[in-house]
Amino acid sequence: MAWPPGGSGRELRRARLMFAGGGSLVPPAPWPPALVGEWGARLRRWARARKELVCLPLGGAVALLGGSVLPLLAALAAVPLVRRWLAARGEQRARERREAAVIELCGTVAGELRAGRQPGQALAGVPAGDLGPQWTAVSAAARFGGDVPEALRAVAAHPGAEGLHGVAACWRVAVDGGAGLATGLDRVSAALSAERDQREELRSQLAGARSTAVMLALLPVLALLMGSALGAAPLRVLLHTPAGLCCLLLGGLLEAAGIAWTGRIVRAAAGERGRAVGPGAPGPAEGKAS
């Protein structure tokens, strides 16, 4: 058999497979390489975990535009403040997730009890979810006959899981009768849901004040952009003249004072609204549990 000498590369590879006993063709190397993709994924995870470091490139860009190292130093000083703010936001979200998990737990266990399951089995079958690894102690206590109320109180020490104190009280009082425990859990769930709805309503009412504060805080940045567009070079004046440095320092102090003052007003309004529900009264979950 003869093969035409001018065959393409595809035909040559097919001939080698046919007459050399088969084999496998080496696939082309993927692009981008796996190492590049792995390092890219690590970089994205690191960027998500270190969001406060975004201040550095922003400060560096302003420093290049203004020809001064002061914006970069200000960005370095802002990194720990932004880190604290992000940590507070993360803790608030974790608190809300735990609160939602407690409400869901109460409804799930109450439904299982009405379906005919024993209290220990119903509680042991609840997944940990957002309640954290400490929930394994509660599941073990419910499964093997341990001190369930004490384990519930240990988990309730975490922010957002305070409603488990009411669950522990209901468990200690009505663990011998599944129907009574289901009723108590329903009341605890309803009280926690009402408290969460009240907090959401308060947050929506204060959203306007927060938006106004943010808009007023961004007005100096808008003024700098408008001045740069008009050719006034405000960064050169602020960063390279004594009068500009004094104005920058005074404006920064006034900006910080305004933000702190607005935050204090919002927190005071939230505190007064929370106390208006019932000063000195126990929380909704504890009151319903009792």
- What is the first-to-last residue Cα distance? 96 Å
The ordered H/E elements are HHHHHHHHHHHH
Low-pLDDT runs of 5+ residues are: 277-290
Mean pLDDT: 77
Can you give the helix content as a percent range? over 70%
Number of strands: 0
Q: Tell me the major beta sheet.
A: none
Indicate the structural class: mainly alpha
Domain Type II secretion system protein GspF: 108-227
InterPro entries: T2SS_GspF_dom (IPR018076)
Protein name: Type II secretion system F family protein
Coiled coil: 185-212
Structure overview:
The protein has 290 residues and is mostly helical. It has helices at residues 9-19, 34-49, 55-66, 70-114, 119-124, 135-144, 148-156, 164-174, 178-229, 234-240, 242-275, 284-289. The protein is elongated, with a radius of gyration of 31 Å. It starts with 8 loop residues before the first helix and ends with a helix. 19% of the residues are buried. The model is unreliable at 277-290 (pLDDT under 50).
Task: Itemize the secondary structure elements and their pairings.
Layout lengths: L8 H11 L14 H16 L5 H12 L3 H45 L4 H6 L10 H10 L3 H9 L7 H11 L3 H52 L4 H7 L1 H34 L8 H6 L1
Task: List its salient traits.
76% helix, 290 residues, 12 helices, single chain, mainly alpha
Gist?
Helices cover 76% and strands 0% of the residues.
